[in-house]
Amino acid sequence: MRVSLKGTNINLLESTREYVDRKLVRMVDRFLIKDDKPIALDLEVGKTTKHHRTGPYFRAEANLSIGKKLLRAEALGENLNEAVDLLEEELEREIKKFKERKRALMLKGARKLKEK
User: What is the pLDDT of residue 64?
Assistant: First the structure.
């Protein structure tokens, strides 16, 4: 799996890289361990603006490519860790929806074969 992390309007610290790795990369590995398609995870974390000081101005975005399919998630938070946590939840929902859709299509094909 290829992982790229980009910081926008902030300097990425080693602790930020470790936190993102612990929360997102391991979660993606856990859900997509059996897929033999090429997987690429592009992450972007940062501030939405340079001048705001209050409100949800930290942003986290993930683009997960599984073969030719692209799953995308985005989250805003009061601090960077909150944005990453919200992103993890949203990306987990997207992955589950993708896997369930794939499973449902397989079962639908099996039902058609069984009826014949």
Answer: 94
Burial class (CB in 10 A: 0-12, 13-18, 19+), 20: buried
* Integer Cα distance of 45 and 60 in angstroms: 4
**Taking the chain (116 residues) in consecutive chunks of 10 residues, what is each chunk's mean pLDDT?**
90 91 87 80 90 82 92 93 94 92 88 84
Q: Name the CATH superfamily housing domain 2-115.
A: Ribosome hibernation promotion factor-like (3.30.160.100)
pTM of the model: 0.84
Contacts of 56 (CB under 8 A, 6+ apart): 76, 77, 78, 83
Amino acid at 105: L
In whole angstroms, what is the distance from residue 7 CA to residue 46 CA? 5
Distance CA 57, CA 84 (A): 13
